[in-house]
Batch of 4 targets.
Target 1
Amino acid sequence: MALFKTLDNTQGDKNPKKMDSEIEKVKCLIIGSGPAGYTAAIYASRANLNPVMYEGMEPGGQLTTTNDVENFPGYSEGVTGPAMMEDLKAQAQRFGTDVRFGLATATDLSQRPFKVTVDGNKLIETESLIIATGATAKYLGLESEEKFKGQGVSACATCDGFFYKGKDVAVVGGGDTAAEEATYLAGICNKVYLIIRKDYMRASKVMVERVMNTPNIEVLFEHKTKEIVGDMSGVTGVLLTNSKGEEVKKDIHGFFVAIGHKPNSDIFADYLETDEVGYIVTDPGSTKTKIEGVFACGDVMDSHYRQAVTAAGSGCKAAIDAERFLGAL
Ligand code: NDP
């Protein structure tokens, strides 16, 4: 006996009445709404796969926390991250993607149709699954960092930089994200300390030059963060150690962490192969995972390029892979 009543949107029923205890059946489920997810949605809806997309915790993905995107083809004057994501969403919806607010909280990929739980209470069965869940900012793991999260500690300069207008702040990290955050903050804040644990920056040459040519950025090579200090008002300073083991204190009000990202693959890890960091492993040159009918695209499977345009490209591939998979059933 079926435990749940099922609803089937593969038969063209656009507005089925749903209850939390009912299972909804779909042909193509897309989890995640960054450039990869939306591009997959555009292609999947144009291929009549009637895709349903759950946007996840951060609708629009990481680019919604980015200021100017200057390297996405087609925007000759650049575009803000949120505006670009709105454009992609509108394009996906124009072709019929059912974009929904909700977070996938569990999966059962042991057999097809695959089962995905959304927000802990809604069950979806899907014939094909496109994983586009992206990656999340990493933190240093200090107790003091945890204590002052939201009170001076942030992982997003474009979200929170404004709160530190005219003040001194620090950014930790030596990659492109840190360089970008530091130069962005330099335009708002009085002074920016860029804390780098090595004696060089890993960021691209153009970004390093931009940092070095910004007068109110002071780069502190070979410095490690020991503790973030503060009081009831929030962060007031940061304690660092230099290469000689000496302690250095800087008075700051904002501490921005820009040390990389963790792929959002935890809910799939029991079924799919992941690398040591957690990136989902796909067949070379394709978005196919080790489970037929499950595809991964964008930052959750790409530890190398991690660009909006490469994520979009892999989203396109995922939709084409899903279409071919469903067509061959
Ligand atoms: P990266 O992994 O490239 O860099 C992380 C940085 O954080 C490194 O300098 C690393 O140091 C440092 N770091 C890591 N852990 C710690 C720690 N515990 N304490 C101190 N420092 C630490 O991440 P990004 O987010 O900068 O970039 C990710 C990808 O996205 C890259 O490919 C980048 O090119 C791309 N990107 C492109 C942009 C653009 O084109 N506009 C903008 C932003 C990102 P170490 O070097 O010592 O390992």
Target 2
Amino acid sequence: MVAARILRALAKKPDLVLGLATGSTPIKVYERMVRAHRNGIDFSRVRTFNLDEYLGLPADHPQSYRYFMRKHLFDGVNVPDDNIHFPPTDGSDLTKRCGEFEQKIRDCGGIDIQLLGIGRNGHIGFNEPTSSLASRTRIKTLTERTLEDNARFYGPDETQPEVAVTMGIATILDARSILLQSFGTAKANAVHAAIEGPISSFWPASALQYHANTTFYVDEESAARLTMREYYRRVQRAEADSEARGLM
Ligand code: GLP
């Protein structure tokens, strides 16, 4: 569904601006995009901005998000290297360069579609709990919980980075549309807090309630704590019906 939405948008706008996420959640979407390219879909004018990257990992480190994106998407589609952007994580003057990253997004006309996953603690990108809802791209220290969740990817001799650079919550909210995916029981509390909780920097994804065009794509496990599940199902059916009748 998510990949289909991206491909429909691409058909309408060949120079689509995509905000991209890492983690296990979006991998299937990237697989479908790669398959679409093999079947002739052109990505040569697409521009991409990734949400976040670890500080201090070189691009060829298997745990870096640049490596992840190459492996799961960029090696399989024809987005030109010059069109691929990550928050700055090496070199000096990161604060200034984070500002330039934000400017680059604006120069491209803003992000059309932002893909998101969600952390168990409700983080989006690496905006950990208590991140300012007005935050922009910046350095962020990771919480113990996030470090624990990602520790399994590191070998005993490898140092796990504790700091990352991430788009801010306000950066994410600037996107024209946001598609958040969540799978599995471990995310059920975060999904509940994001959709049905009060807006709070303690659950960063709850800031999406401010966004006029956000869709959550969740499985039964991640939806388990939603109190209005039946209503959301009806909304989904009604929207599908309206779409089929050409009303949307
Ligand atoms: C990391 C990323 C997030 C991602 C989260 C969940 O912390 N910075 O963007 O949403 O992991 O990962 P997963 O999809 O593997 O559960």
Target 3
Amino acid sequence: MKTYAIILASGKGERTGLDIPKQFVKIAGKTVLEHTINTFDKHTGIDEIIIVSNPDYISLTEDIIKRNDFKKVKKILAGGKTRRESSYIGVSSIEEENGKVLIHDAVRPFLQSKIIDECISALDSYKAVDVAINSADTIVKVDNKNIIEEIPERKYLKRGQTPQAFELQLIRKAHELANNNNITVTDDCGLIVKLKLADVYVINGDDFNRKITYPIDVAIADKLFQLNSINAPKNDLSKLKDKVLVIFGASKGIGKAISEMAKDYGAKIYGFSRKTGVDVTEFKQIQKALDEVYSKENKIDYIVNTAGLLRMGKLNCREIDDIIEEVKINYMGCVNIAQLAPKYLNKGSLIFFTSSSYTRGRALYSIYSSTKAAIVNLTQALAEEWENEHININVINPERTATPMRLENFGKEPEDTLLKAETVAEACLNTLLSDYTGQVIDVKRR
Ligand code: CTP
Ligand code: MG
């Protein structure tokens, strides 16, 4: 008996007010629909995926499936005018007699695979399963004059999410009855309840499993991907084999760790630093370095800049030349590299480094924290500018890391409170291999 996932993507997304339906908006380098399909495609409990697409976007949906090589997508169907109709189109396309069916909103891209697991196993005991979360707010019931009629006890009130899971025969019957009786509901469990066909068991959803509905949800989704991206880009690092990777700031700390790890995976590494005569504040020196690599290899796949400087002290007590040097290394270094990168990278990827102080300026290292904030902003802007050139750019945000620079400024700290340079290197290499762009990738201690 097979388990099917029906992904509903036929809506117009009118409430988000964008030019395209929200399921086709790109977040973290991929459309919302791609993120959603990916979760089901990867899940070992799902056998087949059926996409019910907005009829005007079928060919885009087909492109998405091809581009990602999603193996489990067996059908792309044109959806209906209402969610219920789209859902019916998905359910009635299944030819087998029996099976398990999970119906999910394409616009909930943060679904965790754990919820899919629980839906599938709950179907062994129940014929219909809903996913819902507790309501933090009190829910009031009002009449048509906006006067409270009732305040139901909160512990019995939950907010519905998806997926909703069913025995195939039950959900098929529910839709057929609804067709004949002109029943309107907002979701599939609503049908089962309205028609009194079975008990609907509720499993716990998750706050992350949000639906993109209004413009603010697109902005929140973008932030959630950033939060989520801590362990997110996981790739097969052996894909680094024969890739050409240029590292600025390669002589020590994180740069050195990246260089060593990438070499182990078979990448061709070109490391530069002031020691090798390449100062990131000097445009011409960077250009010369990139030229050298390019003429030797005929390509550059990735560029990473870890060069940075942290000088502590009250701003007014510091020498101006010292401040300028810090700004130039931290900020202008990135600008210089970014200026040159598109000439050398063909669909490649660039990575900068920020610090957790970018979100809030810190006393005694005001220049460091403000240059690190500037790098995040620069990364976001360039990700948009380079979209059509297919160059990805991201910025890694490591927690406090055990590096010579940290030791110099903060003295010896307990080892278990610091990230290892290798952990940061691994996140950096995974990000280079991902489709992410414009993202701040947080790296935390495990
Ligand atoms: N959906 C669908 N077919 C429809 C309407 C909705 O497949 N005719 C899907 C949407 O694509 C979405 C999910 O059902 O994945 C939840 O619906 P909703 O959030 O209402 O999306 P839209 O209908 O697209 O948005 P809006 O109501 O703002 O137009
Ligand atoms: Mg709708």
Target 4
Amino acid sequence: MERELRVRPIKDGTVIDHVKAGQALNVLRILGIKPGSKEIVSIVMNVPSKKMGKKDIVKVENRELREEEVAQISLISPEATINIIRNYEVVEKYKVTPPEYVIGMLKCPNVNCISNTSEPVESKFMVTRENGIKLRCYYCERVLSENIADHLL
Ligand code: CTP
Ligand code: ZN
């Protein structure tokens, strides 16, 4: 078992596990962790996983996630699990669930969309799950399915 250990257990914080392989850096982006950040973060990328083949893991110490951050993670990685760690124990574990609609979170790729004009209209996408996440703009029907993290506002 010890030979399997890549990063050590954390004392307090959040482990975002079963992140879609290749999405760990986008999870950091969602969490606002960037050069200069003071937080203690461990990331593991492309490790073997029984359930998923390959997965990423992000551990952030001394921090619990906001609802909005969890919703954003669910869009780029619908299989992710959130584990809350207190005093080394997993005290809470849940799967992220993509919301039905995402409002004011992503920029519509259609420059002519009403949500991109000077009108006071917040972007709004309907979320569907078919072979991963698909988002359809409520106003112009433009579909977003790849590189969703690149459209985060
Ligand atoms: N973890 C951690 N620090 C702790 C406790 C757990 O970093 N003090 C991590 C584990 O390494 C794992 C995740 O949190 O990546 C969930 O822990 P656990 O529920 O013990 O693991 P599993 O049973 O493998 O989880 P699952 O059933 O969700 O696959
Ligand atoms: Zn649109």
